[in-house]
Amino acid sequence: MKQPFIRKASAWLRRRAENIAAGLLAVMFVAFIVQIVFRYFFNFPIGWTSELSVITWLWLVLWGAAFVVKESEEIRLDLIYGAAGRHTRRVMGIITGVSIVALYAASLPATVKYVSFMKVESTSYLKIRFDWLFSIYVFFIVAVIVRYLWILSHLLRGKDPEPLDLTKASSGL
């Protein structure tokens, strides 16, 4: 009974994460268009649009990497990974997972401390405190740690990693 609920809740949360990413992209696009209109049509450049574009880009990239991009969509050395056998792929996944969890977990206290310290600074135009602005990185680190602990739990229980599907491989172009 719990499994269908967890799947439904997970799917609902994933869709909301995608909605937030789409909203960030929309805000960035509108700010970009406003910037073009004011600069080239009114000859009146405004700085807050550039600042907002950079902020939404930062949040979009880290939010997307933390909550939207699936594990199978992450960058891999497919040439090596695809040529490896099932057992070797599992070992590679375990080594990668342990490394990522260890490195991000080791950096988390210093990251939180630095982000907290940045409350003394704010952005030039929008006056957003840098601790609020950079807080997305803390969410990103925690999400990556949780994701890789979940992946590691499956790999350590003997679940095979996803085999490389050459029909889905592309250059992204």
Description:
- There is one protein chain.
- The protein contains 5 helices and no strands.
- With 173 residues, it is mostly helical.
- The protein folds into 2 domains: 1-69; 73-164, no CATH class.
- Helix 1 (2-41) packs antiparallel against helix 2 (47-68) and helix 2 packs parallel to helix 5.
- The chain is elongated, with a radius of gyration of 20 Å.
Which oligomeric state applies?
single chain
What's the Cα radius of gyration?
Answer: 20 Å
Number of strands: 0
Distance between the termini: 42 Å
What can be said about the biggest beta sheet?
A: none
Helicity range: over 70%
Low-confidence blocks of residues: none
Please identify the structural class as seen in this structure: mainly alpha
Summary?
This protein is mostly helical and 173 residues long. The chain has helices at residues 2-41, 47-68, 78-83, 86-117, 130-156.
